[in-house]
Design a protein that fits this description.
The protein is of the alpha/beta class. It has a domain of 200 residues: Amidase signature (AS) domain (Amidase signature (AS) enzymes, Alpha-Beta Complex), CATH 3.90.1300.
């Protein structure tokens, strides 16, 4: 089996610094080896998994949004950390991974309140993209993907609503999954968007990814096979022509495996409509339900992006939210019917390779808007989305997305990973 990474693991026991010193939670050790600035420092924790289990040769990181008994979560903001009480239980997914033998080596940095996909954090610094440190890492699961791509961990978990796992996986050239809605338990996760937020995971190597999938996902409810590839034309129309052209060969390769390639449009009203009139309304309303009390009570210092988005979220009426929820269900049913005969969807994961940090705010906002058109499909439809590092452009990774019917996650992984050879 694969050898463990060499990163040190704190106290190395099921007990650790934070658990031993509950009265001193504000004092913690810095992860001993962190050249990519991937790990949190103020609430570091490390726990050994059980020996002799399937994942006993692996180490992993967990986005700093998951409860771990005896410590606190930061959720990308120092005031969230400051006013949080010590966690009273450990998230089910983390317990599952520890019971399967994996060693938790630390919590990873995320975007501020997870309300961004850039990977930048004004308060804690921004993890580096090991494929090209001049470029953005992507977020909000930035630390998890940076640490995995840089070889500091074998795999990592994060959360994903509008691309928080998928975008940094694409930018950093690793395998990532946004699973079917509610397929993986995400209790013990910082409140965010209850209708669409999921726990996702990433790995650099397909064998590791398969092992983690077997532990977190179990088997699909029904065995099935894929019969055709749908090229989602309206998704490709949302990105620049150079990205479209880069996909020609991989579409042919995957389509040849299935035997049939068809071109479709998934959103008759346009993907922009589904982003602005449905996704952003549901997400914004539910995020304000999660964060409004915190913002109003503690008046945290927010950076411009999250601040602007939270202000807009606070104005969404319940009437508009309920109408958007109905439209989301309509979209879900439409996609369920579309995929019912074993079809696989292919799109770019993000609208481009990782943008340079020196790019103008206007250009970064343009690419973010393009990406939102691609990223809204799986959360609105509740379906699994696998991103694979099958392409490169400008010498850095360009992620390829495959999507399939709800709860076909394992089948999708088995199908997609064969193209990693």
């Amino acid at each position: 089996m694969k050898q463990k990474k060499s990163i040190e693991r704190g106290d190395g026991d099921m007990t650790n610094y934070a658990m031993k010193n509950l009265e001193k939670l504000s004092v913690s050790t810095i992860p001993p080896y962190d050249p990519l600035q991937s790990f949190v420092r103020d609430n570091h924790i490390a726990i050994k998994g059980l020996k002799g289990k399937r994942l006993s040769n692996y180490v992993f990181g967990a986005k700093d949004v998951f409860k771990i008994k005896g410590t606190t979560w930061g959720n990308g903001h120092p005031d969230w950390l400051r006013y949080s009480q010590p966690d009273d239980f450990t998230a089910s997914a983390i317990l599952t991974l520890l019971d399967a033998g994996a060693d938790l080596v630390g919590k990873t940095i995320c975007d501020e309140l997870c309300y961004s996909i850039s990977g930048e954090n004004w308060h804690y610094g921004s993890p580096l993209n090991p494929t090209d440190t001049r470029r953005l890492t992507g977020g909000s699961s930035s630390g998890s993907c940076s640490a995995t791509a840089g070889g500091l961990v074998d795999f990592a978990i994060g959360s994903d609503c509008l691309g928080s796992v998928r975008v940094p996986a694409s930018y950093n050239g690793i395998i990532g999954l946004r699973p079917s809605y509610e397929r993986i338990q995400n209790d013990g996760e910082a409140p965010y968007c209850k209708s669409m937020d999921v726990l996702g995971f990433v790995a650099s190597e397909k064998e590791v990814f398969q092992d983690v999938a077997s532990v977190l996902l179990n088997e699909d409810p029904e065995k099935g096979t894929f019969t055709k590839l749908y090229v989602v034309d309206d998704a490709f129309e949302a990105v620049d022509s150079n990205v479209q052209e880069a996909f020609n060969a991989v579409i042919d390769k995957i389509g040849t495996k299935l035997g049939t390639i068809e071109h479709i449009k998934i959103a008759e009203e346009g993907l922009e409509y589904w982003v602005k009139e449905v996704f952003q309304i549901v997400q914004g309303y539910e995020i304000w339900e999660s964060y409004g009390g915190f913002v109003n009570k503690y008046r945290p210092r927010l950076s411009p992006g999250p601040k602007d988005r939270l202000e807009k979220a606070s104005t969404i009426s319940r009437e508009r939210y309920l109408e958007a929820k109905k439209k989301k269900e309509e979209f879900r049913q439409r996609v369920e019917h579309l995929l019912s005969d074993g079809a696989v969807l292919i799109t770019p994961t993000a609208s481009s390779v990782a943008p340079l940090k020196s790019a103008s705010l206007k250009e970064i906002d343009r690419l973010r808007t393009q990406s939102s058109h691609l990223l809204c499909i799986s959360p609105l439809a509740d379906i699994p989305q696998l991103t694979l590092p099958l392409l490169e452009q400008d010498g850095v990774p360009l992620g390829v997305t495959l999507m399939s019917a709800k709860n076909t996650d394992r089948t999708l992984i088995d199908f997609g990973l064969q193209f990693m050879d």
